[in-house]
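Below is a filled-in request sheet from our internal design queue. Each sheet records the structural input a requester submitted and the sequence that came back. We keep these sheets so that new team members can see what a complete request looks like end to end.

REQUESTER: design group, bay 2
PRIORITY: normal
MODE: inverse folding
CHAIN LENGTH: 306
BACKBONE (tokenized):
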């Protein structure tokens, strides 16, 4: 049913351009694929033990997002591997990951299982020490479900202009969550996630980005997600807040003093991922790829020490 639904909850659309960009080899064999996704895989240096998984937003092509955001250039420069799952319009007319469909976001179901199988396939070849996931918008919401359902896979994750899992289980609740923020409190989200894990896992660190002028996904989603993840990781209840030109960073630390959660709130930015075109490898501006004083990708690679 959900595969046939038009993803009308994204209010801004754009058409794919004919611009030429580097073609990353397809990942054609990765086992069971119940979500009917495709993927491309850029393999870094054989000695590199870092993999980044990128989940695109609606009406986006994942490889192009990797280029526009600066991620592909940095993968080539730093020689880490990059896995890019791709949604199709056959699954969702807007090309969104079906983050609101229980048959795609529940553990070992649908699209999330396809992504898990992709990760396990490339990991079996190279035995990565660190696996990270970055998701934008609908891809951010899907990344939320991935870090909750498969926390053992990831060293850390980044949710960009996304939503907490599980804030929606159908199209109606998805629209409400996007417009107004999750109906659940942070405490309720934490309780729901704990119910899904009978054995307490080691939760990956999480970086959460939002534009404070985002009119597509209410910034309350990112703010609630940050508080919820701080509770889940038993981090300090009060964040350390640092202000920079054009953005603010709130960080929650664990008992080991490591940063378990951080929330990056960007002033005067709408819905998308932040790039800083004036910086080397800072990315280039495009629809939903927004010019600011900070590059999301460069910030993450510095935080993750890649």
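RETURNED SEQUENCE:
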């Amino acid at each position: 049913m959900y595969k046939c639904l038009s993803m009308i909850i994204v209010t801004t659309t754009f058409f794919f351009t004919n611009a030429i960009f580097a073609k990353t080899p397809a990942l054609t064999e990765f086992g069971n694929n119940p979500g009917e996704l495709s993927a491309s895989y850029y393999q870094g240096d054989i000695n590199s033990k870092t993999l980044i998984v990128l989940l695109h937003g609606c009406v986006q092509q994942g490889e192009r997002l990797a280029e526009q955001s600066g991620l592909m250039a940095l993968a080539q420069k730093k020689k880490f591997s990059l896995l890019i799952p791709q949604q199709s319009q056959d699954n969702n007319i807007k090309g969104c990951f079906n983050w609101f469909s229980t048959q795609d976001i529940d553990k070992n179901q649908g699209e999330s299982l396809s992504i898990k199988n992709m990760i396990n396939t490339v990991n079996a070849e190279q035995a990565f020490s660190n696996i990270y996931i970055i998701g934008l918008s609908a891809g951010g919401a899907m990344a939320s479900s991935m870090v909750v359902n498969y926390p053992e896979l990831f060293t850390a994750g980044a949710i960009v202009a996304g939503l907490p899992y599980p804030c929606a289980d159908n199209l109606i609740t998805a629209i409400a969550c996007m417009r107004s923020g999750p109906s659940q409190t942070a405490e309720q989200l934490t309780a729901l996630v704990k119910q899904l894990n009978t054995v307490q896992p080691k939760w990956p660190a999480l970086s959460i980005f939002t534009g404070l002028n985002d009119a597509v996904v209410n910034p309350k989603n990112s703010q609630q997600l940050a508080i919820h993840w701080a509770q889940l990781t038993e981090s300090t209840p009060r964040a350390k807040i640092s202000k920079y030109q054009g953005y603010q960073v709130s960080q929650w630390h664990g008992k080991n003093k490591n940063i378990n959660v951080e929330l990056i709130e960007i002033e005067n930015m709408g819905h998308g991922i932040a790039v800083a075109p004036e910086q080397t490898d800072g990315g280039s501006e495009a629809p939903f790829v927004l010019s600011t004083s900070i590059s999301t990708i460069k910030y993450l690679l510095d935080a993750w020490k890649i």
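SHEET NOTES:
- The first helix runs from residue 62 to 68.
- The chain has one domain: 2-6+30-303.
FILED BY: M.R.
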